[in-house]
Design goal:
Length: 227
């Protein structure tokens, strides 16, 4: 056993439908992967090279609660499909990329939009707006053996029963195999990696007390309360 000089931090995990837990190694997030969302954020939706940012593994949270973060007054919801990898490598061909997927989950990429905007304007990294504590509420992992590889289906988010976001997985600019392949050209992917695949249009602010219900066709729904 290693002789740690301080207690080893726990491995972040996400429960799996049917039993067991999925250990999280890294979390990659793709930006502006739905055309309508790219437009609402003021960008050209034409297909260009994808770009990614990262959250921390322990930002993924399964408690059903989202603590409103400090130092922000404009925190937005972004519903996303998360892709959980069971293996990886470098320079993975698109044709075999799905062989590396263990399963899929519902997720939220909660964003301090005001702080993210400040960082964009200053040409600085986004972590303060994206990688804060419990910023990625996540549902249980649905294994591929049970749900296959969803490439179409409604993606929705309601706040207090009001529909805010609505899209379809078939609207992804960069599809799941392409994301995996592209990422593997720049990073060595591995088991435990999570890829958050982008959000449809309709992102907007939440306040304490709000109830967010997210759903993806074939993966059910989850409710997260802002506290």
């Amino acid at each position: 056993m290693p002789d740690f000089v301080i207690p080893a931090p726990p491995v972040p995990t996400i429960p799996v439908v049917g039993g067991g837990d999925f250990p999280v190694r890294r979390v990659y997030c793709i930006g502006r992967n739905y055309a309508a969302h790219a437009i609402e954020m003021g960008h050209d939706p034409d297909r260009e090279d994808p770009f990614f940012f990262q959250k921390n593994p322990n930002n993924l949270d399964t408690t059903g609660e989202f603590p409103y973060p400090p130092h922000s007054s404009d925190v937005h919801h972004e519903v996303e499909l998360s892709v959980m990898l069971k293996s990886g490598g470098s320079n993975i061909p698109v044709e075999s990329a799905l062989d590396h997927v263990y399963g899929y989950a519902l997720s939220l990429d909660m964003t301090r939009r005001d702080r993210q905007g400040e960082m964009k304007k200053a040409g600085r990294p986004w972590e303060i707006g994206k990688a804060f504590e419990r910023s990625a509420p996540t549902g249980p992992v649905h294994p591929v053996a049970e749900v296959g590889h969803p490439d179409s289906g409604a993606v929705t988010l309601k706040v207090n029963g009001e529909l805010r976001q609505e899209g379809d997985l078939n609207q992804l600019i960069w599809k799941v195999p392409e994301m995996i392949s592209y990422l593997s050209e720049y990073f060595e992917l591995a088991a435990g990696d999570v890829i958050m695949s982008g959000t449809p249009s309709g992102v907007g602010p939440v306040v304490k007390g709000d109830s967010m219900e997210v759903a993806i066709e074939g993966l059910g729904s989850m409710t997260v309360v802002v506290v």
